[in-house]
Write a structure and sequence with these properties.
heterodimer, A: alpha+beta, four-stranded antiparallel beta sheet, two-stranded antiparallel ribbon, elongated, B: alpha+beta, 10 helices
């Protein structure tokens, strides 16, 4: 059954110049194994179609993935014409996207 | 152990936090972070109007009300509120006449190498702050030091760390990263906010040990929560690769270990390695003028309404420099007017202030001549200057990082 990613995952996002970063974490090892396999760069771009070039980093010690979305904010917050120019809510947008999460992980 | 609290995560954060942190329990050091990329631009515009400004003025008012109390309690204060003018802020604190020993850190301003920039500041590290504290300063004001340096400097001074104690420096950097955004570590802006009382989160404290490990906590009786989840959330804020570069140490975020602790969260295991030979520079440049407005498109024919107003505005002032975004926030057959409405945002960014004015006038003149139901969320203003941010890198050895001690002695860091 498709449910919001935020059912099991937390997120925090913000800006570094024209790039946005988006950290996503879960609370159990089993959830992290699923997250690491599910949330590839390609999958993230499907869920957030506004993303362009994306780097992904794994932080297994925090059960977290960190994504850097290059250029999403143009030339930085003061110049950006984006609705959320500091990418503060990018993480909450991602959490609201529906994905297939195995029943036993919820 | 040294107990370091933070009372500010940005210029504009909770004014009463300095008092709350001083009176809420024991502290050795109170820090305040006032700077961000955007703040440097705002301070740059302040300084352009009046060269005696360029620092965070709220910090001065906070000290006016609380410095005597901090001195009486023996709590040292370290802040980057100096912004573009740490010397000016240090002098203003002296003028409060409370007898505090005030020191400041300087050398971050590298505009001489970036003449086109409104602001150009290298991110300095912790050692200037440590020098000031070693010299007995009660208050240390810095400009563009890294946010975490406000925590690393006091810890390094307290424990007598050497510059190659990389694991300890990395541990303190991680604690500093957790503290630097204030209540974002204690349940503010937290995904699982419904599982805690997030009404008024307390500000965070790091109890740092000689090896750089720490316990993140907050004063008893304050709101919010310090849990592995709230700390994880803040660790993920504004980071890139796991090797987190800083001016004093590279902190390896993939070695951080978090454990629940009876008063919060314990951080241990952080590994550090030598820093790069370059320092990052925060550059802000004026980009031009911008103005924007949002047309509200209600009910039927939303796309056609958007096409009409776009055609009208572009035929009045030309299409160049305009960015349009149609947000289909409307719902069919809606039972409230607001949920029947879509939003059409348009922004102009131009080097010509006259063109920004023409945009405003043209937008207003459409009021009786456009799509049915025409209205805007707010009329376009006169346009404001906007900044363009970029990062640059300069050799560390080329940046004159200096500590100016309470007695006026200048020390090269």
């Amino acid at each position: 059954m498709r449910v919001p990613l935020g059912t099991i995952a937390g997120a925090r996002s913000g800006d570094k110049g024209g790039d946005a970063n988006l950290g996503v974490w879960v609370r159990t090892d089993a959830q992290y194994e699923w997250l690491r396999a599910e949330l590839t760069v390609e999958r993230l771009k499907e869920l957030l179609p506004e993303a362009g070039e994306v780097d992904r980093y794994e932080l297994p010690n925090l059960k977290a993935l960190n994504f850097v979305l290059h250029g999403l904010l143009g030339e930085g917050v003061s110049s950006s014409t984006r609705f959320d120019p500091q990418a503060k809510a990018l993480g909450e947008w991602l959490r609201s996207r529906h994905v297939e999460i195995p029943e036993e992980l919820r | 152990m040294i107990r370091i609290g933070n009372a500010s995560g940005f210029y504009g954060d909770r004014f009463s936090a300095v008092r709350e942190m001083l009176t809420g329990g024991d502290l050795d050091v109170l820090t305040g972070d006032y700077l961000a990329e955007l703040t440097m631009l705002i301070l740059g515009r302040d300084r352009a109007k009046d060269a005696s400004l360029g620092y965070a003025r709220t910090f001065l008012r906070q000290l006016e009300q609380n410095l005597a109390d901090a001195l009486a309690r023996g709590v040292k204060i370290a802040s980057n509120a100096g912004g573009l003018n740490p010397e000016g802020l240090a002098e203003a604190i002296d003028r409060l006449g409370l007898g505090a020993k005030v020191a400041y850190v300087t050398g971050d301003d590298v505009r001489d190498r970036f003449p086109e920039a409104l602001t150009a500041n290298a991110y300095l590290g912790a050692w200037g702050i440590a020098e000031c504290l070693d010299a007995g300063a009660d208050v240390v004001v810095a400009g563009r030091v890294t946010d975490a340096s406000l925590v690393v400097g006091p810890a390094a001074a307290h424990f007598g760390w050497r510059r190659d104690d990389f694991d300890a420096l990395a541990g303190a950097t991680v604690a500093g990263h957790v503290l630097e955004c204030g209540t974002q570590a204690t349940g503010g802006n937290y995904s699982f906010f419904t599982s805690i009382d997030a009404t008024r989160p307390g500000f965070p404290i790091a109890e740092i040990e000689a090896d750089g490990s720490s316990v993140i906590t907050k004063h008893d009786g304050t709101g919010g929560a310090v849990t592995v989840d709230t700390v994880t959330a803040q660790l993920l804020y504004e980071i890139g690769p796991p090797a987190y570069l800083g001016p004093d140490v590279v902190s390896h975020f993939d070695t951080i270990r978090l454990d629940p602790h009876e008063r919060g969260v314990r951080i241990s295991g952080v590994r550090g390695s030598p820093p790069p030979d370059t320092l990052k520079v925060c550059l802000n440049q004026l980009g031009g003028f911008r103005d924007s407005t949002t047309f509200v498109l209600t009910g039927l024919d939303v796309e056609a309404k958007a096409d009409l107003v776009r055609r009208q505005l572009e035929s009045a002032i030309g299409a160049e420099d305009l960015t349009w975004t149609l947000a289909r926030t409307d719902h069919p057959d809606a039972d409230t007017e607001e949920t029947a409405s879509a939003l059409l945002h348009v922004t102009i960014k131009t080097s010509d202030p006259k063109r920004a004015k023409a945009f405003s006038r043209a937008g207003i003149e459409l009021a009786l001549a456009s799509y049915p139901g025409f209205h805007v969320t707010a009329p376009p203003g006169d346009g404001t200057p906007y900044g363009v941010y970029r990062a640059a890198y300069v050799p560390r050895s080329s940046v004159p990082h200096r500590a100016v001690l309470p007695d006026g002695e200048v020390v090269d860091v």
